[in-house]
Amino acid sequence: MNNTAGRVVFDHASHADKLGIDCQVCHHDALAAGQAGQNCRTCHGLEFDASFKGHSVSLDPATCATCHHMILSHKKWGHSRHTRDLNIDCQACHHGPQIEATPQNCANCHDRKTDMGPILSLKNAVHTRCASCHEEAFAEGDMTSCSSCHTATASRDVQKQGRLPKSALVPCSTCHDTEPSRLVPGVMAAYHGLCISCHEKQGGPVDNCAQCHTK
Length: 215
Fold this sequence. Notes:
- The protein is mostly helical.
- It has a domain at 76-148: Alpha-Beta Complex (Cytochrome C3).
- It is built from ten helices and four strands.
- It has a two-stranded antiparallel sheet with strand order 1-4. Strands 2-3 form a two-stranded antiparallel ribbon.
């Protein structure tokens, strides 16, 4: 494999056939054992800019579940428990009569994806209301506490049963606060992370570039 640091000699057959390493270990977008996935550079090293918006056309649909890896659905959060058992007033969550004469469904005014000036998106509006009482559920700032309110299902498991539902193809920001470019390692970091971690487990430290790169 040609590389600016010097070519890397990689024997694919010895990894896949002689050592019996499954394709999915490296090609983690492959849906099943024995399937070859995309070239690493197809996803790693991409810039998440305006041109990437058309990636659904340029990338194989079979790879969707690699990045859109979770489907979040809502658990029954217990409306009656909040109002009847905990005696919480409706206006603790809903707006007062100056905005809505009677409590409405939040989605009637809040767009599902976009903040519209002072009117928050549905996600941000609901999260803001819930966090006002349930601070502990939002303290981590990542996906670790999503399961408090959502049921998370692996997209890959759903995709194996048929077409990945469109509802699963949500932006990274639905679950992650981190920039997409930091969630997906660049091509060099991807190769180093995968190759070095495996070789260190098999035979000791990889601490010299010349162990892999030749001039």
